[in-house]
Amino acid sequence: MRCKGDLPQKVCAVCGRPFSWRRKWAACWDEVRSCSERCRRTRRN
């Protein structure tokens, strides 16, 4: 089991804030670019 501090992090391409790995992104972590659904929707417009 990992501590939250040991999880990989990325910087959001839209808002520039750091975000951590989530279990739902386990299969596609390399493809994740935005930290949230809101940032993802904002990027497309």
UniProtKB/TrEMBL annotation:
Q: Which InterPro entries does the record match to this protein?
A: UCP037205 (IPR017136)
Q: Pfam families from the entry?
A: DUF2256
Can you say what this protein is called? DUF2256 domain-containing protein
Species: Halopseudomonas oceani
